[in-house]
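Example complex used in Figure S2.
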Amino acid sequence: MARLNAENTELAKELIGHYPRSKSALIPLLHLAQEQDGFVSDEAMVHIAELVGVTPAEVLGTCSFYEMFKREPVGRYLVNICHGIACALMGAEDLISHAEDTLGVKAGSTTADGAITIERAECQAACTEAPCLQVNYRYRYRVTDDDFDALVTQLRAGALDGEIPPHGTLARPAFRQHIPDDRRNGPALVEGGGEPVWIKRHREMKEGEAAEAQGTAS
Amino acid sequence: MSDTSPDRIPQIVTGRLAAHDDAHTIARYEATGGYAGLRAALELAPDDVTAQVKEASLLGRGGAGFPAGVKWGFCPPGVWPRYLVVNGDESEPGTYKDRILMERDPHQLIEGILIACYAIGCAQAFLYCRGEMALAHERLGAALNEAYAAGYIGKNILGTDYSIDVVLHWGAGAYIVGEETALIESLEGNRGMPRLKPPFFPAAKGLYLQPTVVNNVETLSNLPWIMTNGAEAFHALGAETSRGTRLFAVSGHVENPGVHEVEFGTTTFRDLIYGHCGGIREGRDLKAFVPGGASSPWFFEEHLDLPLETKAVGNAGSMLGSGAIVVMDSETDVVKASRTLVRFFAVESCGKCTPCREGTTWMERILDRIIAGQGRASDVDLLLDVCDNISPELTWPPKQTTICPLGPSAPPSVASIVRRFPEEFERYLGTSFEVTVPMKGAAYVPKPDTAAAGASGSSGESPS
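Predicted assembly (682 residues):
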C-alpha cells in the first residue's frame, strides 16, 4: 500500500532502461507494484508516474484497461476458472458452481479469511486440457470437483507455497530477464537511429559489385 | 506433439519439445542443432535471408495468414530504426499453440527472432508475452539470459557486426492486444486500442511511428528450420498456398483432445478429428465444429474432407485463423455455445468503436433473454440486425463497420446456428420465427437435405 520500495525502484529503473521511450515500461512497472503489494495502490501509481514522466492519470488510464491489474486487495490466491468455449463444452459452468458452493462466495469475490478469490476467466490457452483453471496464473488441467476441493485444502494449508508465489508475482525473481552490461546493445532510440551497420555493409558491398560489373561491361 | 502423423512429415517446430523434457534449456537446444540456423543466416546477406523466407512461402501463423517474407518487405527503404514486435499474446478462444512453443522451446523462438531481425535490419526486438502465462515468462526470461551469456544476443553477435537487444515484455490481460496495432499501443504503455489503418500500417508507421514488423510466435519459430534445411525443403511440404507444417489445437468433444503439428494444406479436418484425435467422444455424432478460432463461421459434417488449406477453407466460407478447432457433439446446446462465444467478444471489446462496443453487448443480452426462456419471436431477427450493423450483410470475408476485426468476429456463430439449427432457437422461443437480414457467407447454409427440399434458402449462398 505504498510507493515502490528501494529495491523495486532500482528494478523499475532497469526496466525503463530497456525501452526507447520510458512510457513503454508502464505495464511492467504496474506488474512490479502488484508483485510488491498484491495489488496496484494509488501511491504506487503516483510513484510510477514520477519514474516514467507521465501523469498519475495516465498511469491509471493504462492500469484500468487491463484485466490482471487489481486496484483493491484480492486473496493471497487468485483462482481464475476458464469459462471459454472449449472449457464450457467440457463442464466449466458446473465447475464454477461447485467452486462457488464450496467456498461460499460468488465468482468475483474473496473468501472471508482472505485466502482465495475466485473469478471467471476468458480463454487461457489450454483448450485441449479443459476444463482448466489458474492459481495466480499457474495452470491446473482437466479439473474435477474433487480436484478443486483438494486444491483448496492444499492452498489453505500453504502446501503449494514453493510452487505458487503469492498473487502479483508472475515470473519468480530467479527467472527475470536481466541484460548484462557487457552484452547490452542498448535501446534503439527513434532520434538519431541510423542504418544498422550490417545492413550498411551489405548494401555498400552490393553497390560496389554493381559498380564494378558496370565498369567491366563498359 | 503428434505421434500418429506419417514419418515423412518433419515436426518442424515441435520435434525437439516432443522428444526432450528439457528442450527449454540452452544445453539441450545446442545439442540438438540449435542456433545453426542463425549461423547459416549470418553467412548470407540480409536480403538473401528475406528471399529464402519468401521462397519457402511461410505464411503468418497468427490468424490473418499473410506471407512473412512479403510482410518484411513492406518496411519503407531508408527509414531507421526498424523494430520487430513478437506477438505472443495468444488468447483467441480455442487457440493453444504459441504457449507451448514459448514454454517448451523458447530458444527456437529466440533464434527465429534473431534471424528475422538480421534480415529486416531491426535495431531492437520486443517479445510481447501474454500476461497470464507465468511459466512462459519464466522460461523466456531464463532462455534470454542464457542466450545473452552465450553471445547469441546483444552486442556483436557471434563475433559479427550484427547487434540487437531482445526485450521480454509482459501483457496484462486484454484479448484485443493480439491485434497488431493494439499490441503496439500496449507496448507504448497505453490502453490497448487498435489504430486506424491507414495510415498506421505497422510496416510503415508502427512502434513509436517507426517501421515495425509484427510476427507471431509460431511464424518465427519456423525460421531456424528453414535456414538450416533450406527454403526448398519447407516448400516441398504442404500444398497450394499453404506450405510447411502447422500446429492445430483440437479441443471440445473429441476422445483425445490435443495439439498436433501436421502437414499444412494436405491434411483434412477428418484426419485431425477422427484420426489424430480419435473421433467424437462416446461414439456420438458430430454436430458442428469451429474451424479456426472463435471468430470463424462454423463447419459441419460436409466440410470434414476439406484440406487444412487457406484458400480451400476460405472458399467454403470460413478460415483456418489461429489453428483452433473446437468440436461439438450431437448433445451440444449450440445456442448456449454461441452465447459463450458472443460473451467473450462483449467482454473483450475495447470500446473504441460503437458498433462493436454496443453491438456485442446487445447480442449477449438478447441471447441471455432467449436462453432464459423470455425471448420473443422477433428476437432472432433483432439479433441478426445487430450483427448486420457490425458486419453488413454477414458476408465472408466479413465487411466491417469497425476499426479492427473484433466486432465482426461476434456474428459468425449466430449466423451459423440460425441457418443450420433454426429449430434450436425455436425450442427456446416456443415458436417459429422469420428472418429478414441477409446472411451471405458461404458457410451459412442449412442442412444439405433440407436445402435440396428448397426450404428456407432465401438468403444464403451455396458453398463453393
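The first helix of chain A runs from residue 6 to 16. The CA atoms of residues 106 and 129 of chain A lie 24 Å apart.
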